[in-house]
From TrEMBL:
Matching CDD domains: trans_reg_C (cd00383)
Pfam families: Response_reg (PF00072), Trans_reg_C (PF00486)
InterPro entries documented for this protein: CheY-like_superfamily, OmpR/PhoB-type_DNA-bd, Sig_transdc_resp-reg_receiver, WalR-like, WH-like_DNA-bd_sf
4-aspartylphosphate found at: 51
DNA-binding residues (ranges): 125-223
Origin superkingdom: Bacteria
Name assigned to this protein: Response regulator transcription factor
PANTHER family recorded: REGULATOR OF RPOS
UniProt keyword Ligase present: no
């Protein structure tokens, strides 16, 4: 498994490189955002770890650039910035997880393995379906009424969870836990933001509602669509 670490602290780099290599990973290191961007463009990585306070191109900017090219590669932000606003911004820009320094390497390793496992699902039905919506976990493709719909990695993960729990009401806390794998203020609106992103892509163009809001409880994706 190949990991790209974009980090400018030599001590942190040494810890990560030693730890991952002992676990059998191949580790590439970039010391600034611009170099990290070039490396991400030129190599297929299983996961990318980003600091936020990077020279030349910060972690938020780099995450955005990577997501424009690759909607699927897992991105984990590894940073000393630990406020809810920092986390929400990173997740909204396309990061899959967020770990605050200082950290225990074994926790980081567990998160990396969980993210890469989700990126290569080998369970469940070949195609998940509701009405005319189909999601293929293996090919990472989504279609509505036979038309291919482009989703970001986070949108895809959220839709996959909703489909795997079809007709089941999921709270915002449930969705944060299953999709973002983070424990942070459940009062954040990041779930609502991404539900709206999905609705703009899989509902509005097709004139029907699949994801329904259950007031005071959360969201549910139902088999039977409702006309908009």
């Amino acid at each position: 498994m190949r990991v790209l670490v974009v980090e400018d602290e030599l001590k942190v780099i040494a810890i990560l490189k030693q730890g991952f290599e002992e676990e059998g990973f191949t580790v590439d290191v970039a010391f600034d955002g611009k170099t990290g961007h070039l490396m991400a463009l030129g190599t297929q990585y299983d996961i990318i770890l980003l600091d936020i306070g990077l020279p030349h191109l910060n972690g938020y900017e780099l995450c955005t650039l990577i997501r424009r090219r690759d909607a699927q590669v897992p991105i984990l932000m590894l940073t000393a910035l630990g406020t809810t606003d920092n986390k929400v911004e990173a997740l909204t820009l396309g990061a899959d997880d967020y770990l605050v320094k200082p950290f225990e390497f074994r926790e980081l390793l567990a998160r990396v393995r969980a993210l890469t496992r989700r990126a290569r699902p080998d369970f469940g039905p070949v195609v998940l379906q509701a009405a005319d919506l189909e999601l293929n976990p293996s090919t990472k493709q989504v279609t509505c009424d036979g038309q291919l719909v482009a989703l970001t990695a986070r949108e895809f993960a959220l839709l996959e969870v909703l489909l795997r729990h079809k007709n089941e009401v999921l709270s915002r806390a449930d969705l944060i836990e299953k999709v973002w794998t983070l424990n942070f203020d459940t009062g954040t609106n990041v779930v609502d933001v991404y539900i709206n992103y999905l609705r703009n892509k899989i509902e509005k163009p097709f004139g029907r509602r699949l994801i329904q809001t259950v007031v005071g409880m959360g969201y549910v994706l139902r088999d039977e669509p409702v006309a908009l």
